[in-house]
Amino acid sequence: MHLNSAHFLCFALLSFLTESVSAHPAKVFSHHTPRARCVYFETNNDINSIVAIKIDGATGSLVAGSETETHTGGTGAVAFDAAGQPLAADTLVSQGAVARNAKGDMLFVVNAGDSSFSVLTVSEEDCTVLKPIAGPIAIPSGDFPVAITYSDKLKTACVAMSGARSGISCFKLTTKGGSLEVQALDSTPRPRPSYYPPQSTPPRGPSGTMSALSFDSSSSALYATIKGNPGATPPIPGTILRYPVDKDTNRVGGPETLQTFSPPNTAFIFGFDVVPGSHGGETIAFTDPIFGAGFLGIPDQLQSAGPQVPTGSGFIRTEIPNQVATCWSAFYAPTQTLWVADGARPVLVGLSVDSGAVVTQATMDGAGTTEGSLDLAADSNGGFVYSIGPAAVGGIVVNVWDIRGTAAQGVQRFRVTGTAANARSMGMVAV
Questions:
Q1: 10, 133, 311, 354: which one has the fewest Cβ atoms less than 10 Å from its Cβ?
Q2: Strands, sheet with 239-244, edge to edge from the N-terminal-most edge strand
Q3: Which class for 300: exposed (0-12), middle (13-18), buried (19 or more C-beta within 10 A)?
Q4: Backbone angles phi, psi at 159, to 5 degrees
Q5: What is the enclosing helix (H) or strand (E) of 413?
Q6: Degrees, nearest 5: CA angle 222-224-227
Q7: What is the DSSP string of 228-274?
Q8: 361-401 residue pLDDT tens
Q9: Whole-structure pTM value
Q10: Does residue 47 carry a pLDDT above 90?
Q11: Helices (H) and strands (E) in the chain, counts
């Protein structure tokens, strides 16, 4: 089946607007570690799997023939568009369907079809060798998980769900006697704000679906994003959620602790990264396919919280020239750059997290003009970005971008072979 721009969710976003209005830096291994590096994504097929591909340590490119596929034990599923038709790509309408721990020896993956998640270990000898150690772990009273994150400090995994019983649920992970025990910390998910209408399972997107979630660098708060609906009456804003972590119990706060932020002139807040040490606290650097990217400062001491920007913060709204569907992001700490991918164009755009300005843009040679990316990961150890997306002729590709110089450069368009990966694939992690 041929894929064109209309198949991408972010094009569905634009179509939706026409009708109604007219996602992490994590610790990485040092250059002295003998461990090889890999990228990982999930197939999101009915029999869900993780695909691993080796990274060539000398060039940063992916190694042909190194692909492996490991079943998660769970099942994948596909979200619907606003008209109730199954999405052909961006099938979870999210960023961060796969996550990792800081050391890079544990992976977390959502199974949307059976409302669960799985945990897999990574072999020290071969990063393409994975072993499921927990799961599929059922999510109490939650439907259709789309994104997951993990805090080593809290030993806590949290999952965002977009189905009929949507919201966020968290789990405690404990290692005992060589085995991993997983305890549900919530009997029901933390719900979305009440101004979002009910969802279905599978959800109809893009409006009202969960986009991404992540802990901040100190694990003192959990953030998440939800897409708005500018065509509703009254319009529903895109929303950034913040749940403080209790310092005494090390647990993520419940619904009563929720702080919500809706920066002005935003609509479909999608992927994001939490950038520490900026704007008097930390910055939520996010994407919005209507215009490009935004940067919201969150002060160390929140002076107010509610449906608007917190008092004392700064907000920068960046319109990316010629962008069509900027939905996914990855923060690269060495250069303080937010890298963003467009779901409808084969480009990678770098923005300064300090000024919000576009500093560089690269195009992938050999890609079709509408072959975009549907998630990405920055590898701070090697200086590369890896993005995943469907190919127009079928199958899935991983684009490799060199970000070590002053300008980004597309260096490899890697077609994944030997696995069941297809246009349903989601998530991207580099270890």
A1: 311
A2: 210-215, 221-226, 239-244, 259-261
A3: exposed
A4: -125, 135
A5: strand 409-415
A6: 170
A7: -BTTSSSPBPPEEEEEEBPTTT--B--GGG-EEE--TT------EEE
A8: 999 988 888 889 999 999 978 899 999 999 888 899 999 99
A9: 0.91
A10: yes
A11: 1, 28
- Report the run of H or E that residue 377 belongs to, with start and end: strand 375-379
What are the pLDDT digits (tens) for 202-225? 999 899 999 999 999 999 999 999
| CA proximity to 135, closest of 198, 41, 71, 69 | 71
From CA 355, how far away is CA 78, in angstroms rounded? Answer: 37
107-156 pLDDT, tens digit each: 999 999 999 999 999 999 999 999 999 989 999 999 999 999 999 999 99
Residue 232's pLDDT is what?
92
Tokens 């000898």 found at: 125
Structure tokens at 6: 């209309």
Pairing mode of beta strands 281-288, 272-278: antiparallel
Residues 6+ apart with CB under 8 A from 83: none
Can you read off the two tokens belonging to residue 96?
């961060």
Residue 186 near residue 170 (C-beta atoms within 8 A): yes
Tell me which amino acid residue 88 is: A
